[in-house]
Amino acid sequence: DVVMRALEIKRENRYDSAMIMRQVLRTAVVKVKEREAAEAHEHQQREREERDREAVRERLRDEGVDVSTDR
Question: Are 15 and 24 in contact (CB under 8 A)?
Answer without folding.
Answer: yes
